[in-house]
Amino acid sequence: MFLLRINMNPIDRFLSKFAKQNSGNECWQWTASRTQQGYGMFSFQGKSIPAHRFAYEHYKGEIPDKHIVHQVCQNNCCVNPEHLIVCTKSESRLKYNSTRIHPDAKKLIQNIKERGPEELIDDFGFSKEV
Questions:
Q1: pTM, whole model, 2 decimals?
Q2: Where along the chain do its domains lie?
Q3: Which of 28, 100, 115, 126 is deepest in the core (most CB within 10 A)?
């Protein structure tokens, strides 16, 4: 028995590698290969490229020289073209550093949402008395 490899065109392959929500302007989560930082990677013309760059070029057009694609949603695995803008590296750093939430803070916020602030009081050594 052998496996038949079907060569899909790049657009069809790309479209098969993310989860798209049916409603609203949600992130399109890349579900295939990712870097350690969570950026999606896509194989195109024999090279591995960031998936959000491929998405930008496919949906919006060419990326100008000395510009990068920035995910305004700050979700590294998002490929939703509505969440992608082009900017310089320094513009991206300014935006990134001024609005980025540390991953540990994100976990804490999620924990508070799930467990409620009352259950977390003991975790931080606070007294329940005011």
A1: 0.68
A2: 10-18+25-99, 102-130
A3: 28
